[in-house]
Amino acid sequence: MNLPEDFVKQIESYNCESMNGLLESLAQTDASVSVRCNVGKGVSAPADAVGVPWWPNGWYLPAREAFTFDPAMHQGLYYVQDASSMILAHIVSRLTDGGRPIRYLDACAAPGGKTTAAIDALPDGSLVVANEYVPTRAAVLRENVIKWGYESAVVSRGDTSRISRLKGFFDIIAADVPCSGEGMFRKEPDAVAQWSRALVDECAERQREIIDNLWPALAPGGYFIYSTCTFNRDEDEDMVQYIIDNYGAESVAVEMLPEWKIANGVNTEHHCHRFMPHLTQGEGLFVAVLRKSADEDASPVKAKRLKSQSQQRDVPSLKEAKTWIADSQSMEFAVEDDRVVAFPKAYAQEYALLASHLDMIHHGVKVATVKGRDMIPAQSLALSRVLNADVFAACEVDYATAIAYLRREAVTLDDAPRGYVLLTYGGRPLGFVKNLGNRANNLYPQEWRILSSHIPETAPKVL
Fold this sequence. Notes:
Layout: H1 5-13, H2 22-28, E1 33-37, E2 50-52, E3 55-61, H3 71-74, E4 78-80, H4 87-95, E5 103-106, H5 113-121, E6 127-132, H6 135-148, E7 153-157, E8 170-176, H7 189-194, H8 197-214, E9 218-228, H9 237-247, E10 250-252, E11 263-264, E12 272-275, E13 285-291, H10 318-322, E14 331-336, E15 339-344, H11 348-357, E16 360-363, E17 365-371, E18 374-377, H12 379-382, E19 393-396, H13 399-406, E20 419-425, E21 428-435, E22 440-442
Parallel strand pairs: 5-6, 5-8, 6-7, 8-9, 19-20
Antiparallel strand pairs: 1-3, 1-4, 2-3, 7-16, 9-13, 10-13, 11-12, 12-13, 14-15, 15-17, 17-18, 20-21, 21-22
C-alpha cells in the first residue's frame, strides 16, 4: 500500500516512540478478523478460541468467513467487530461496575458494533439510545440492534443538535465521531484514496460541533467517551483538550493492562489511549474518557406524561400478543399505527420524552403487526430476549432451509402444524412463518433478506 505523502509527514512530525513501526505496519500487513458473542443470549466464545485480551467475549478468527451465509449472525448470536473497538465494552464495564441501571447514549452509532458492545457491558436493565444521522446507516443500525435482542433499546435518526434538547438526561454518552479514517487504511482502500489534510480539518470542525451538541445532554458527574478511528492529533488529543478547555471536563483514567500494549496519547498529560496495529492486534483507534463536573448547574429535562391506556387504540387480539412476551407484567404495550410495541414499564416516561425530541425508528420490541383482527408476530419478537417461545409451535430447520428462509423464499415444513410457527436453527430462534400446509409464507423482513445466490453447502464455522 502506498500511503499519502502528507500523512507520512504528519506521523513523522510527532516524533513519538510509540509510533515507530506504524507506517510500516499500515503499508505491509493485513487487517485481523475478530467477532464478539452476544452474552445476553447466553452465547460464549468457543473453548479453543484466541481471545481478545481486553474483552473476554471477543475472539480472533484465522481468516475472514462468509459471515453473510451464517444463520448465527442473523440470529444475533455474534457481531463481527474489530478487536480494537471492543475496548468500548471494557471501558463501560469499568465505569459502571456493580452499579445501578443507567441511561446510555451512543451518539454516532451506525452500524451498531459499539452499541451492542455497550449493551453487553452495562448493568442489565439500562436504557440504551443509539442515534445515527445518515438514514441508510440508521436503517443498518436498527437492524443490528433488533438482532441483538435487547428490550431496553431505542434507535433514533437525526442530527445531534436534537439531542442537545435532552438536558442532563444521560449518565454516559459515547461519541465515536466521524473522522478521517486513518486507522482503517488496512481494511478500506477508499480511506487511503480519500485522505487529505483538508479532510482532517473538515472532520475536526464537525467533531467540535458534535461535542457542542452532546455536552448539554450529559448529566452532571456523567462520563463522555470520545473515540475516533484515526491517528492524527487534530482529531484526537487536541479534541480532548478542546473538551477540557471549553467545558471544564476532567480527564478520567481507565485501567489498561501493560500486556495489552495500548499506547498512551501523543504529547499530552491527559489519559488517552491509542490502538496501533504494530503494537496491538486490531485496527487504529483512539479513545479517551472525560467527566462532567458534578457541581455543574443543571435542571434535567422532564419526562413527558404518557397517554392513558384508554386513549390507546383498542385491538381485540392485544391480550393474545401480551402472552408472546415473557414477564409481560414488566412491559408496557402500545399500538402504534399497525404495530404492537412492548417496552419496559420502568422507562415508559423516558420513551415518551425521547419520542417528543427525537426521530425514533425503533424502541423496545415490535411484537406484532396488526392486520384486521389478526396479529402477525414480528421478527423483532423472534430475536428478542423476552420472547415467550413456549406459546408458539417450533420447527428446527437444517442449514439449507435456514438460508432459504433468510433469502425470504417459501419454505416447506414437514409435520408442522398450520398457523404461525417459530423456526429455529441450532436450537435458537430464527424467525416466523405462517404454515399453510403445502408451503409456508415467509415472514422474514424483505429489507433484511440475503441477496446473493452463491450459497455455500455448509455454514461458516464461527461459533
